[in-house]
Amino acid sequence: MLTTMRQWGDKHAAPDGPPLELIHERCGHVSDARMICSSCGEGIGPRDVRAMPVPGAVERLIRTAEGAEL
Known about the structure:
Layout: H1 2-12, E1 35-36, E2 43-44, H2 57-65
């Protein structure tokens, strides 16, 4: 998450370019962190995914909000 935030800042808030770069150790080139689907291996971006609550998540959040232990 921190790398994603850094990359966003480099793109949108660093007019003189990024203050640091990630160098891939194996090939020696500058690289950006990328998200890859763990099932099919395809690259994914923010518009390619959606957040879905897991079973019981809503109930846990309600209990937490009411002060109950998980």
